[in-house]
Design goal:
By secondary structure, the protein is of the alpha/beta class. The chain has a single domain, classed as Rossmann fold (3-Layer(aba) Sandwich). The protein has a four-stranded parallel beta sheet with strand order 2-1-3-4. Strand 3, helix 2 and strand 4 form a beta-alpha-beta unit. The longest helix has 19 residues. The relative contact order is 0.18.
Length: about 130
């Protein structure tokens, strides 16, 4: 009997959208992983945590993935941001995916530094 592949969803902002576009452009199927995995990428430029509450399509699945990797939070950092609020919101999304959607494993990526010319003033100091 054939074993079903591990379903992996990679969700996030423009970093993930660019990864998906690069993979498509370079004809990289399934991130070059073997058939034990089935990878889908859901990336949306400018995605903020608050947008997920009224644009739930990015978190809606016909069949729950086994593993979900989240790369979120960078677009939420502003000069008046409260880091604990951003972290709490990310954890709430991870809990929703695990407890509400049924994702077995939810991984949260580290907030990544952006190049100074593509970020607001002080971004890398607050997000570093």
């Amino acid at each position: 009997m054939a074993v079903s592949p591990v379903r992996v969803a990679i969700i996030g902002h423009s970093f993930i959208r660019r990864l998906r576009e690069y993979a498509e452009k370079c004809n990289i199927k399934n991130l070059n992983l073997d058939s034990h995995f089935s990878v889908s990428m859901r990336g949306k430029g400018g995605l903020c945590l608050k947008h997920l509450s009224y644009d739930a399509s990015i978190l809606r699945f016909v069949s729950s993935p086994d593993i979900c990797f989240l790369q979120l939070g960078e677009n939420d950092i502003q000069s008046n941001s409260v880091p604990l609020k951003i972290a709490t919101d990310i954890i709430a999304i991870a809990n929703f995916l695990h407890d509400g959607v049924g994702v077995k494993i939810v991984l949260v990526g580290q907030l990544l530094r952006r190049l100074p010319y593509s970020a607001c003033n002080g971004f890398n100091e607050k997000g570093g």
